[in-house]
Amino acid sequence: MKDQTKVIAALLVGAAAGAAIGLLLAPESGSELREDIADYVNDLFEKAKNQAKTTSDNVKDYAGNAVDRAKNYGNDVVDRAKSKFNDLVGDAEDYRDDAVDTARSKAKDYTENAKDKVKSTANDWNNSIQQA
Hints:
Elements: H1 3-25, H2 30-131
Helix pairs in contact: 1-2
């Protein structure tokens, strides 16, 4: 049972006990006593109503704050995920660019070697033909 519910229950039990003792010990007439008890009970219900309103407002505030905290946490998680994703995409682009650069360099080297071999072979044939 929540603390506020316990307080309200204790107030109601105390009010009933007070009313019973008041009836037993009252030196006033019945109509005055009934009026005093009615006033006391009305005050007690008013206090209970105010306490319930305060509790309701506190619960609404707490729930609103909890929702805000949850939204903020969710947004933080999404932002971190986006950041991590962007980092991974950047890393992948860097690896791709490195691979393209390496492939171009290797292709250039192979092309140069092939040209050199073709020239050398052509020169060798040329020399062979001229000596024949």
